[in-house]
Every structure is written in structure tokens, then in C-alpha cells.
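TODO from last week: model Aspartate 1-decarboxylase.
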Amino acid sequence: MLIEVLKSKLHCVTITEANLHYMGSITIDEDLMDAANLIAGEKVQIVNNNNGERIETYIIKGERGSGCICLNGAAARRAVVGDVVIIISYAQMDFEEAKTFTPTVVFPKEGNKL
């Protein structure tokens, strides 16, 4: 049996940009992606602490060291610059493996810095 469990989390990052006129996705600083064990194209859930919105999209690599967290396309309507969000990815794994799996959780500092 496979179950879906928390794989990675960027806890309380700040939206730095919202770009409505882009095809879609979330752009994330590549340093943050590496720290949280996230890859380009990976499906993520974004939980907005300011307004309660929960959306799903996929990741695009952002400029390394920029602190960029940018919602693109329709997702840009779900947050404004300055909102604090949690970015979560999940993985499917065997039930027994899931019992011992340790997710990667990152708590960035102000400015979305590690």
C-alpha cells in the first residue's frame, strides 16, 4: 500500500512578487529549493497564512540567492507581495517506509534567506 506523506516544506517564506501575466507556477530561489529538497517541475501546495488560500502548482527555478518567491499566472490572484506562505511537497511511499521517513523542513529567515 502506498500513502502520501510530507516530503519537503519551506515554512513561512514571504511572497516577493506576483506575476499575473505569466503562464503559471511558483518561482522559488534555487538556494531555497536545494535546502528543501525540491526540484523544478515538482508539484507543490501553497498555504497562505494571511488569507487562508490553499493552491497547487509546480515549481520554476528562481535566481539563486535572490530570496524570490513569486506566484505566477492565476496563482498570483491568491496572494500579494508580503504575504507569508508555507510551500509543501508530498511523496508517495510504501506504508512501512513512511514510518521511518524524515521530511526536509526549512525555516528561512527574514528576506527568505537560509
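Done. Residues 26 and 71 are 5 Å apart (CA to CA).
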